[in-house]
Amino acid sequence: MGNHQVFQNITQHTIHLQKQSAEGLMSLFRDLGTAYLHLSQFNCKKAIECLENLPPHQHDTGWVLSLIAKAYYYLNDYRSAIKYFAEVREREPHRTQLMELYSTALWHSQKEVALSALAQDLVRLDRHCAATWCATGNCFSLQKEHETAIKFFHRAVQVDPNFAYAFTLLGHEYYTTEEMEKAMSCFRSALRVDSRHYNAWYGIGTVYYKQERYQLAEMHFKRALAINPQSAVLLCHIGVVQHAMNQTEKALHTLNSAIALDPKNPLTKFHRASIYFNIDRHADALRELEELKEMVPKESLVYFLIGKVHNKLGNTHLALMHFSWAMDLDPKGANSQIKEAIDPAVSRNQAEEASTPTTSTVSTLPFTPGDL
Amino acid sequence: MLPRPMNDLNPFRAEGLGKLREVGSQAIWSLSSCKPGFGVDQLRDNCMDTYWQSDGQLPHLVNIQFRRKTTVQDISIYTDYKLDESYTPSRISVRAGTHFNDLQEVEVLDLNEPSGWVHIPTKSLSNGKPVRAFMLQIAVVSNHQNGRDTHIRQIKVHSPTIDKPIMVDDFGPFSTVEFSQYQYLR
């Protein structure tokens, strides 16, 4: 009897343990599943929250970390994405999944060395993986060798014709080389593979934008936004298109919501400042630009735009000061346009012709035709 | 009161408002004939004391060839009967087209002892919008008092400006990664 009792106790205990561990496993899977669902629906912030709440021994795995990195990537937070991807590579150097996103994040942050290292590692690891050739293509794209990049993206498409992102990257590359027709067909191929691939919708939008078919561009950007509603960059593009269509109020509204979504994105604020400048809200523009100066003290174009605002306000002295700062910060890049901005400022000041339009390059007539 | 249509506006005033631009400087000018030292330079030098003087048979032609197809709102011609008398044009024809061989007349204007600017709106015959052309030709068909050679002191060509907002794209590349990383998605 005694033995039987003990045996029963042990069995019960084991069953209990088994049940517990099964439950634990189930709850883990449930958490992972919820997180994955959130990520697939582009609720990136929620997905990150779920994944961060996992127990450490699950959290610190390549799969989870790469999902967190992916979520940050979709939020356009490339720095965090790179941080997590780097950790993935440290833990599981053999992992090739999602490495195409890592390479693009590095591309965005212009980290040439890390990108080149990643590309070489991947080539050594697996030559039959699309991510490998995407990374290599990105590497060459960053070096401005777009023709070579196109070759590698073609290879990526060849090794895996069902990999939508490779088509998109190829499309973006054709876009930079201004082959719009080819870019368009690449984006369409990407959508054929995966219609929820928002980058491709965005890509089509950029092509239309370049062709100045703004309505179509807006439509496609909105399509992309419907898939990934939390992307401040997408919202920013929509705002720019609306501005191009002279729908200034709408554009400002869109940019405001983009800034609310991601207050750290300086580009959106810069666009807003330029719209303020356009509609002669100079005080607002200056306030915005001052904030930007705090955020990114080394951006030449911020100073350039401040200079333009002052120029329009008639503060020639301040304008020239900012133009020369802009020139100092970017001595080779935007040089010519800054010089151009400085020149009419000088000549107008000397002539004291306050009413001359800024676009006019024709010298003033020796008589006053306006009187005729 | 209805707002005045733009073509009623004095072209020079419209230029001051940024609605029109002088585009003659983008074109290649040629003349059917000229007396040495009284040519294109004098026609385009913004000075009313100098002039182009033809040296040949009527009609006298001014050819204005653009590098690209250009919308032309109007042509302004400065002549002065008080100074030039029989050299002053009395009938001017404006033609537009892609090259010398397909010019079509868009406007004929009779002048009566003009002194100062004459503005000739150039509207397309088919749709009434400002004419779009690669080439313009201004022909002096006849002069006052049957004069043979002609004097024209200035010619200006105005093109409408497109009201396009200033875009960030026009500024050129950003110099810091903080900005440029958000410029495109990929």
TrEMBL record, chain A:
Q: List where in the cell it is found.
A: Nucleus
Q: Which GO terms describe its biological process?
A: anaphase-promoting complex-dependent catabolic process; cell division; metaphase/anaphase transition of mitotic cell cycle; protein ubiquitination
Swiss-Prot/TrEMBL TPR repeat ranges: 62-95, 130-163, 164-197, 198-231, 232-265, 300-333
Quick one: where's region Disordered? Answer: 345-372
Gene Ontology CC annotations of this record: anaphase-promoting complex; cytoplasm
Kindly indicate where the leader peptide sits in this chain.
none
The entry's keywords: Nucleus, Repeat, TPR repeat
Question: Which top-rank group of organisms is this from?
Answer: Eukaryota
Q: Which Pfam families match?
A: TPR_1, TPR_12, TPR_16, TPR_8
Per UniProt, the ranges with Low complexity bias are: 355-372
PANTHER family linked: CELL DIVISION CYCLE 16,23,27, CELL DIVISION CYCLE PROTEIN 27 HOMOLOG
Q: Which family does it belong to?
A: Belongs to the APC3/CDC27 family.
Write the protein's name: Cell division cycle protein 27 homolog
* Record organism: Ladona fulva (Scarce chaser dragonfly)
UniProtKB/TrEMBL annotation, chain B:
List the GO cellular component terms.
anaphase-promoting complex
Q: Output the GO biological process annotations, alphabetical, semicolon-separated.
A: anaphase-promoting complex-dependent catabolic process; cell division; protein K11-linked ubiquitination
Which Pfam families did the record assign?
ANAPC10
Keywords attached to this entry:
Cell cycle, Cell division, Mitosis, Ubl conjugation pathway
Ranges for domain DOC come to 1-184
Q: Which InterPro entries match?
A: APC10/Doc1, APC_su10/DOC_dom, Galactose-bd-like_sf
Q: Which SUPFAM superfamilies match?
A: Galactose-binding domain-like
- What does the UniProt function comment say about this protein? Component of the anaphase promoting complex/cyclosome (APC/C), a cell cycle-regulated E3 ubiquitin-protein ligase complex that controls progression through mitosis and the G1 phase of the cell cycle.
Identify the PANTHER family for this entry. Answer: ANAPHASE-PROMOTING COMPLEX 10 (PTHR12936), ANAPHASE-PROMOTING COMPLEX SUBUNIT 10 (PTHR12936:SF0)
Entry's family note: Belongs to the APC10 family.
Name used for this protein in its record: Anaphase-promoting complex subunit 10
Write down the species. Ladona fulva
